[in-house]
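Weekly modeling sync, notes
Attendees: AB, CL, MP (scribe)

Item 1: holo prediction request
CL wants a bound-state model with tetrahydrodeoxyuridine before deciding which constructs to order. AB pointed out that an apo prediction alone won't tell us much about the pocket. Agreed to run with the ligand included and paste results into these notes for async review.

Input as submitted:
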Amino acid sequence: MQGLIEAAVRARENARAGFSNFRVGAALEEAGGRIHTGCNIENATLGLTVCAERVAVWKALSEGSRQFTRLAVVADTEVPTPPCGACRQIVWEFCGDVEIILANLQGRSERFRLRDLFPRPFDASFL
Ligand code: THU
């Protein structure tokens, strides 16, 4: 778990967060152990901003990865920052009920299953 958090801490350093100054790092682990990282990337058209979690998911999917086990999210907040609603939807859709590890820079961490953070999701089973 510590290695995954450390990967997210390092990814956070690459955040392009000049509008909010709120830097986030994410690290998504594949079933085989490979780690895909992401950071938030903001845009002057603020709505085009992409969260760290989604960057990690898009990177992993575009590399052909399909099975995931854990996602770590790191930000510099006292209470570890949880993924936004849009990211919960995307992670649910592409990663399933993975473990979500939230951590801050002081070493505080919390663990959840995505199904507990995102109850009663809308997904492909309704289509
Ligand atoms: N952000 C993330 O990257 N992940 C989260 O879990 C919460 C929010 C980013 C989006 C935006 O760049 C900044 O944090 C402030 O909302």
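Recorded for review: The longest strand covers residues 68-75.
Action items: CL to compare against the apo run; MP to circulate these notes.
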